[in-house]
Amino acid sequence: MAASSGFGDVAVTPHELSTLAAMEIYALGGNAIDASIAANAVQGVVAPETCGIGGDLFALVHRPGDAAPATLNASGRAGSGVDPSTLRRSGLTSIPFDHPASVTVPGCVDGWVALLGLFGSMPLAEVLTPAIRYAD
What we know:
It is a single chain. The chain is of the alpha+beta class. The chain contains six helices and four strands. The protein has one domain (2-135). It has helices spanning 16-27, 32-46, 84-89, 108-119, 124-127, 129-135, and strands spanning 2-6, 9-13, 57-61, 70-74. Helix 1 (16-27) runs antiparallel to helix 2 (32-46) and helix 2 (32-46) runs parallel beside helix 6. The protein is elongated.
């Protein structure tokens, strides 16, 4: 793993460019949420097989002074044509992994928006700047 640290800021990711993106966001005044989203976005560009925007996002955020951590489940929703009664009528009692109904709408990007709205300090466009730069 690549790691960087600075006074009060730290980032650890599976890829050096993702770590650098997080540190760049810290240097611009961003907080840990901003930096983690920037790193996640860059990871999706430079190593999409490890962490891409086509997946889900789960977060546990604890701010100093809060009694308990906040949680976010940004897992994807089932498609509009999938509901339990329809599946039962088709003879399913569970959804096989290789069945079309097992595919969900990715929730990662919606999770970024939710996290930034609740805990972030920078706009999404600014947080995504490193990923956009690497994608070019």
